[in-house]
Design brief:
The complex is a heterodimer. By secondary structure, chain A is mainly beta. Chain A is built from no helices and 12 strands. Chain B is built from no helices and 11 strands. The chains are: A mainly beta, B mainly beta.
Protein backbone atom coordinates (compact mmCIF):
# COMPACT_ATOMS: atom_id res chain seq x y z
CA UNK A 1 0.00 0.00 0.00
CA UNK A 2 0.90 3.66 -0.06
CA UNK A 3 2.87 5.17 2.79
CA UNK A 4 4.88 8.25 3.68
CA UNK A 5 7.78 8.45 6.10
CA UNK A 6 9.06 11.81 7.26
CA UNK A 7 11.71 12.80 9.72
CA UNK A 8 10.66 12.94 13.33
CA UNK A 9 10.67 16.24 15.08
CA UNK A 10 10.60 18.52 16.70
CA UNK A 11 13.05 20.59 14.71
CA UNK A 12 14.27 23.79 16.33
CA UNK A 13 16.16 26.36 14.26
CA UNK A 14 17.35 29.89 14.66
CA UNK A 15 15.91 32.54 12.37
CA UNK A 16 17.61 32.63 8.94
CA UNK A 17 18.87 29.04 9.25
CA UNK A 18 18.54 26.52 6.42
CA UNK A 19 15.71 24.01 6.72
CA UNK A 20 15.45 20.48 5.40
CA UNK A 21 12.64 18.10 6.32
CA UNK A 22 13.10 14.66 4.81
CA UNK A 23 10.24 12.74 3.25
CA UNK A 24 10.33 9.36 1.51
CA UNK A 25 7.43 7.41 0.13
CA UNK A 26 6.24 4.01 -0.98
CA UNK A 27 3.53 3.88 -3.61
CA UNK A 28 2.00 1.74 -6.29
CA UNK A 29 1.92 3.53 -9.58
CA UNK A 30 2.98 7.13 -10.04
CA UNK A 31 1.90 9.31 -7.14
CA UNK A 32 1.43 13.03 -6.84
CA UNK A 33 3.35 14.43 -3.86
CA UNK A 34 2.41 17.23 -1.50
CA UNK A 35 3.57 19.24 1.45
CA UNK A 36 0.91 20.61 3.76
CA UNK A 37 1.44 23.04 6.64
CA UNK A 38 -0.57 23.39 9.84
CA UNK A 39 -0.19 26.62 11.79
CA UNK A 40 -1.16 26.59 15.48
CA UNK A 41 -4.89 26.23 16.01
CA UNK A 42 -5.67 25.85 12.32
CA UNK A 43 -6.42 23.17 9.79
CA UNK A 44 -3.92 22.00 7.20
CA UNK A 45 -3.32 23.99 4.05
CA UNK A 46 -1.46 23.08 0.90
CA UNK A 47 2.08 24.45 0.77
CA UNK A 48 3.30 22.97 -2.51
CA UNK A 49 2.95 19.97 -4.77
CA UNK A 50 4.58 18.05 -7.62
CA UNK A 51 2.80 15.66 -9.92
CA UNK A 52 5.60 13.92 -11.84
CA UNK A 53 9.24 12.95 -11.51
CA UNK A 54 11.77 15.81 -11.46
CA UNK A 55 9.05 18.41 -10.93
CA UNK A 56 9.87 21.07 -8.36
CA UNK A 57 7.09 22.52 -6.26
CA UNK A 58 7.67 25.90 -4.65
CA UNK A 59 5.77 28.41 -2.54
CA UNK A 60 6.60 31.05 0.10
CA UNK A 61 10.34 30.31 -0.26
CA UNK A 62 9.86 26.58 0.30
CA UNK A 63 10.87 24.06 -2.36
CA UNK A 64 10.67 20.30 -2.86
CA UNK A 65 11.74 18.18 -5.83
CA UNK A 66 10.06 14.92 -6.80
CA UNK A 67 12.88 12.36 -6.93
CA UNK A 68 11.63 9.08 -8.34
CA UNK A 69 15.03 7.34 -8.16
CA UNK A 70 15.24 7.89 -4.40
CA UNK A 71 11.46 7.98 -3.79
CA UNK A 72 11.89 11.25 -1.94
CA UNK A 73 10.29 14.69 -1.71
CA UNK A 74 12.37 16.63 0.80
CA UNK A 75 11.21 20.09 1.87
CA UNK A 76 13.78 22.90 1.93
CA UNK A 77 13.93 26.58 2.71
CA UNK A 78 17.03 28.70 2.58
CA UNK A 79 16.23 31.10 5.41
CA UNK A 80 13.47 30.33 7.90
CA UNK A 81 11.48 32.94 9.80
CA UNK A 82 9.69 32.81 13.12
CA UNK A 83 6.41 32.84 11.18
CA UNK A 84 7.36 29.47 9.61
CA UNK A 85 6.87 27.75 12.97
CA UNK A 86 4.25 25.10 12.26
CA UNK A 87 3.75 21.39 11.68
CA UNK A 88 4.65 20.17 8.19
CA UNK A 89 3.08 17.09 6.60
CA UNK A 90 4.29 15.21 3.56
CA UNK A 91 1.53 13.42 1.64
CA UNK A 92 0.91 11.42 -1.51
CA UNK A 93 -2.03 10.52 -3.69
CA UNK A 94 -2.51 7.99 -6.46
CA UNK A 95 -5.36 7.41 -8.83
CA UNK A 96 -7.32 5.00 -6.66
CA UNK A 97 -6.73 6.13 -3.11
CA UNK A 98 -7.34 9.21 -0.98
CA UNK A 99 -4.45 11.32 0.23
CA UNK A 100 -2.08 9.55 2.64
CA UNK A 101 -0.19 11.70 5.15
CA UNK A 102 3.06 11.30 7.03
CA UNK A 103 3.08 11.77 10.79
CA UNK A 104 4.13 15.41 10.61
CA UNK A 105 7.24 17.31 11.66
CA UNK A 106 6.97 20.18 14.10
CA UNK A 107 9.24 23.14 13.32
CA UNK A 108 10.02 25.82 15.85
CA UNK A 109 11.98 28.87 14.72
CA UNK A 110 13.47 31.07 17.43
CA UNK A 111 14.50 34.69 16.98
CA UNK B 1 -15.66 33.05 1.85
CA UNK B 2 -16.45 30.19 4.28
CA UNK B 3 -14.71 27.21 2.60
CA UNK B 4 -15.03 24.23 4.96
CA UNK B 5 -16.87 24.77 8.21
CA UNK B 6 -16.97 22.30 11.09
CA UNK B 7 -19.35 22.34 14.05
CA UNK B 8 -18.96 22.13 16.95
CA UNK B 9 -15.37 23.33 17.52
CA UNK B 10 -15.16 21.76 20.99
CA UNK B 11 -17.12 19.07 22.77
CA UNK B 12 -16.78 17.04 25.93
CA UNK B 13 -18.62 13.73 26.14
CA UNK B 14 -19.00 11.00 28.69
CA UNK B 15 -18.24 7.43 27.71
CA UNK B 16 -21.23 5.90 25.96
CA UNK B 17 -22.78 9.16 24.81
CA UNK B 18 -23.44 9.83 21.15
CA UNK B 19 -22.80 12.88 19.03
CA UNK B 20 -22.55 14.10 15.46
CA UNK B 21 -19.94 16.35 13.90
CA UNK B 22 -21.12 18.40 10.97
CA UNK B 23 -18.95 19.44 8.04
CA UNK B 24 -20.22 21.88 5.44
CA UNK B 25 -18.42 23.07 2.30
CA UNK B 26 -19.48 25.76 -0.14
CA UNK B 27 -17.06 24.97 -2.99
CA UNK B 28 -19.24 22.40 -4.75
CA UNK B 29 -16.61 19.72 -4.18
CA UNK B 30 -17.45 16.10 -4.91
CA UNK B 31 -15.03 14.55 -2.45
CA UNK B 32 -15.19 14.92 1.31
CA UNK B 33 -13.13 13.33 4.08
CA UNK B 34 -12.99 12.93 7.83
CA UNK B 35 -9.55 12.60 9.47
CA UNK B 36 -8.50 12.34 13.07
CA UNK B 37 -5.26 13.82 14.35
CA UNK B 38 -3.49 12.35 17.34
CA UNK B 39 -0.04 13.17 18.77
CA UNK B 40 2.67 11.17 17.03
CA UNK B 41 0.17 9.60 14.63
CA UNK B 42 -0.32 12.31 12.07
CA UNK B 43 -3.64 12.36 10.22
CA UNK B 44 -5.55 9.13 9.76
CA UNK B 45 -8.49 8.79 7.43
CA UNK B 46 -11.72 7.67 9.09
CA UNK B 47 -14.26 7.73 6.25
CA UNK B 48 -14.63 9.51 2.98
CA UNK B 49 -17.19 10.20 0.27
CA UNK B 50 -16.80 10.47 -3.49
CA UNK B 51 -20.14 12.12 -4.05
CA UNK B 52 -23.62 12.70 -2.67
CA UNK B 53 -25.11 9.51 -1.27
CA UNK B 54 -21.77 7.64 -1.16
CA UNK B 55 -19.46 6.75 1.72
CA UNK B 56 -16.39 4.56 2.07
CA UNK B 57 -14.18 3.35 4.91
CA UNK B 58 -10.75 4.75 5.50
CA UNK B 59 -7.91 3.54 7.66
CA UNK B 60 -9.63 3.77 11.07
CA UNK B 61 -13.42 3.50 10.57
CA UNK B 62 -14.39 1.45 13.62
CA UNK B 63 -16.69 3.24 16.07
CA UNK B 64 -17.74 5.89 13.54
CA UNK B 65 -20.52 6.25 11.01
CA UNK B 66 -20.96 8.85 8.28
CA UNK B 67 -23.62 10.15 5.95
CA UNK B 68 -23.59 12.34 2.85
CA UNK B 69 -27.24 13.10 2.17
CA UNK B 70 -26.44 16.45 0.58
CA UNK B 71 -23.41 17.24 -1.55
CA UNK B 72 -22.32 20.11 0.67
CA UNK B 73 -22.56 18.25 3.99
CA UNK B 74 -20.67 15.30 5.46
CA UNK B 75 -21.67 14.11 8.93
CA UNK B 76 -19.51 12.05 11.27
CA UNK B 77 -21.31 10.19 14.03
CA UNK B 78 -20.14 8.50 17.19
CA UNK B 79 -22.87 6.17 18.46
CA UNK B 80 -21.21 5.23 21.75
CA UNK B 81 -18.18 7.37 22.49
CA UNK B 82 -15.05 5.83 24.01
CA UNK B 83 -12.00 7.53 25.56
CA UNK B 84 -9.93 6.25 22.62
CA UNK B 85 -11.95 8.59 20.41
CA UNK B 86 -10.55 11.64 22.18
CA UNK B 87 -8.90 13.48 19.31
CA UNK B 88 -8.99 16.44 17.00
CA UNK B 89 -11.19 15.77 13.98
CA UNK B 90 -10.66 17.44 10.64
CA UNK B 91 -12.99 17.55 7.70
CA UNK B 92 -11.64 18.20 4.23
CA UNK B 93 -12.99 18.47 0.72
CA UNK B 94 -11.54 18.39 -2.77
CA UNK B 95 -12.64 18.55 -6.39
CA UNK B 96 -10.70 15.40 -7.28
CA UNK B 97 -9.32 12.45 -5.36
CA UNK B 98 -5.80 12.44 -6.71
CA UNK B 99 -3.59 15.35 -7.56
CA UNK B 100 -6.09 17.82 -6.25
CA UNK B 101 -5.76 20.12 -3.28
CA UNK B 102 -7.58 19.27 -0.06
CA UNK B 103 -9.28 22.13 1.76
CA UNK B 104 -9.49 21.63 5.50
CA UNK B 105 -11.77 22.91 8.20
CA UNK B 106 -10.35 24.32 11.41
CA UNK B 107 -10.90 21.14 13.37
CA UNK B 108 -13.17 19.89 16.15
CA UNK B 109 -11.61 18.95 19.47
CA UNK B 110 -13.46 16.09 21.12
CA UNK B 111 -12.76 14.84 24.63
CA UNK B 112 -14.37 11.65 25.90
CA UNK B 113 -14.24 11.18 29.66
Amino acid sequence: GNSVTQMEGPVTLSEEAFLTINCTYTATGYPSLFWYVQYPGEGLQLLLKATKADDKGSNKGFEATYRKETTSFHLEKGSVQVSDSAVYFCALATGNTPLVFGKGTRLSVIA
Amino acid sequence: NAGVTQTPKFRVLKTGQSMTLLCAQDMNHEYMYWYRQDPGMGLRLIHYSVGEGTTAKGEVPDGYNVSRLKKQNFLLGLESAAPSQTSVYFCASSYSRDGGELFFGEGSRLTVL
